[in-house]
Amino acid sequence: MAENPRAQRLAKQIQTIVASAIEREVKDPRLELVTVTDTRVTGDLHDATVYYTVRGRDINDEPDYDQAAEALNRARGQIRKIVGDQLSVRFTPTIAFERDTVPETSAHMEALLNRARARDEELAQLRANAKPAGESDPYKRASDRPGDDV
C-alpha cells in the first residue's frame, strides 16, 4: 500500500527540524554523536517516529546507545516544541525515538554475502579439477547392447 504523500512530506520536514534541533538547540553533550537517519509519520499525522544512529568517539569506540536514548527521551518535549513552532500544521505530532538497526543489519548481511562468495570461489576451484563419476558418456546406445545388430 502506498504511503500518504502528505505524511511523507511532513516526515521529511520533521527529520530536518529534529536533526538541526539536536545539533544546534538541545544542549546535551550525549547527543553530539547522534545522527537522525529516517522519520516516519502515521497516516493520521498524529505520531512521528524518528530513527537515529549513534557512533563512537573514535573508530574503535563502541557507541553508547543507552546514554543517547536517555538524552533523546529527556529532550523529547523540547524537540516537540521546536517541531511545533516550525511546522505549519494544526496538531504537532507526538515524537518517539527509535534506534535505527539498519547499519548493523546491513553489516551482518554483508558478512553473510562475503561468506557465500568465498564458498562459491571454493566450489568453483573444486569444480575446475573435478572429473565425472563413472564413464565419460553415461548414456546407453542401441549399438552397445549385445545381440542387437543394426
From TrEMBL:
Signal sequence segment: none
GO function term, MF aspect, one: ribosomal small subunit binding
InterPro entries, alphabetized: KH_dom-like_a/b, RbfA, RbfA_dom_sf, Ribosome-bd_factorA_CS
Keyword set, alphabetical order: Cytoplasm, Ribosome biogenesis
One Pfam family matching this protein: RBFA
Gene Ontology CC, one term: cytosol
Keyword field contains Cytoplasm: yes
Subunit structure as annotated in this protein's UniProt entry: Monomer. Binds 30S ribosomal subunits, but not 50S ribosomal subunits or 70S ribosomes.
Name of the molecule in the record: Ribosome-binding factor A
